[in-house]
Design a protein that fits this description.
Helix 2 packs antiparallel against helix 5 and helix 4 packs antiparallel against helix 5. With 207 residues, the chain is mostly helical. The chain is built from five helices and no strands. It has one domain.
């Protein structure tokens, strides 16, 4: 369909150029007509020589400005996404540090305030992670959230084992104690990954 349309357009353009050519040939011997024709052709040629480069230059400048604007918007978007992830990781790091044994608590505590991974999940599902174009950084953050989810899961199971007696089974130690041991073993790993991610994200923000 497009091919036929293009052919018809070419035919129409050719037909439209025939009358002016015939008219020019018929009156070419007229000196006044020849002068007017040459003046018109000269002005048209000058317009083309001057106008086309200017138009191309303006178009190039516009495209360059649009590209720069897009790059700046992408950079700003990347900075906001990194800041969001960094804040969520900082929140998780603070909660984990508070849970560790200290002067007030001899044992690692488990609270109802769970760790967060909602923002990371939302960014992943929304395709926003494409703005972070460092595969190693993405892998590092993914591992941090992988261990965060493990802690969340174990803490949920810990509460279930305490508040739902039906989960209690006769083994060497109560389920909540065994789960707490799993949590204590996983804590150093997730804290390590979170701190490494935060440091890496901080360095990216300074670039």
């Amino acid at each position: 369909m497009n091919k036929y349309l293009s052919n018809w357009i070419m035919v129409i353009l050719v037909l439209l150029t025939i009358p002016p050519i015939v008219f020019s040939i018929c009156y070419f011997n007229d000196i006044q007509f020849r002068q007017n024709l040459m003046a018109g052709l000269l002005s048209t040629l000058v317009g083309l020589v001057i106008g086309i480069p200017i138009a191309l230059r303006l178009n190039h400048i516009q495209e360059k400005n649009d590209l720069t604007k897009k790059e700046n918007e992408d950079i700003e978007r990347k900075r906001r996404i990194i800041k969001i992830i960094q804040n969520e990781l900082l929140f998780n790091n603070d909660r984990l540090v508070e849970r560790q044994p200290n002067e007030q608590n001899a044992e690692r505590i488990v609270t109802t305030e769970t760790l967060k991974d909602e923002l990371w999940n939302s960014l992943s599902d929304g395709g926003e992670l494409r703005y972070i174009n460092d595969p190693e950084l993405l892998d590092l953050i993914s591992k941090a959230y992988y261990y965060i989810r493990i802690i969340k899961y174990l803490e949920d199971k810990y509460f279930e084992s305490i508040h739902f007696p039906g989960l209690m089974v006769k083994q060497g130690s109560p389920p909540n104690e065994r789960i707490l041991n799993y949590i204590k073993q996983t804590d150093p790993v997730v804290i390590k990954y979170i701190k490494t991610c935060i440091e890496k994200l901080e360095s990216v923000m300074k670039q």
